[in-house]
Amino acid sequence: MKLVSMYQSVFDSSAFTRRTVSKQYYRLISQFLDRAEFSFMNYGYACLGARLHTVALDACDEPHRLPIHLYHHLASTVNLAGKDVLEVSCGRGGGAAFVKRYHRPLTLLGVDRTAQAIAYCRRRHRIPGLSFLQCDAEDILFGDECFDAVINVEASHLYGNMAAFLSEVKRVLRPGGHLLLADKRTLDQMPLFRQQVASSGLRLVAEQDISANVLRSIQIQRTDRERTLRAMLPPLLSWLAISVFGAGGSHLADGLEQGHTVYFSLHLSKD
Predict the structure, then answer these.
(1) Which CATH number belongs to the domain containing residue 126 in this structure?
(2) In 3D, which of 70, 26, 19 has the Cα closest to residue 220?
């Protein structure tokens, strides 16, 4: 755990470091993830109490229920049917594919800054109306007012300039459009994050603390996720990946359990 803590300290030292380290780390592990057809990287969302499931899934999607639940939690916030949707930092594309198939937007474009991710997405997710493009979250390569909704899952904490990302989202959204965001921050990072949101020109419609749901998802997936990562990756990379991808006992799981980290979902609107 000492090595993981050192990695986290370096990772959190500055926005530039977060951006650089995360990009190089992802490039390094992509070759291994590709071999395993690893389409989801988020921590997942577990329903609590009596409601264990919120969406009926096809058999092929059932193994990914918890990561899918996180996307469903966001996408259910607004009616996306017949809309033009952009996912920024789409990663492995599993979430974009789910939203396109189940929530039925007219088009869904997934963008990611990493060429390896986009190549994988194009190969793995061939669905009419779903496309992928290499693009940076802080410089979205589209004209003004192109999309009805923007989805962003577990990525904004990696950005070098959060204000630039929010400005770009506002620019590409049509009037009445929505930003649906899920991510994490430590308690001491939350004041700056709230200030960035308040200054974005987007209206806060809803905010929800889903830390308990995400922590429960991490706990449920712990054994399978650790086994998968250890089988896919060399020892040092698997050790770091178990922390990065939120296995039980990871930096994130500890933070959520002890209350030092908050995982939240946001619904922002462009009036």
Answers:
(1) 3.40.50.150
(2) 70
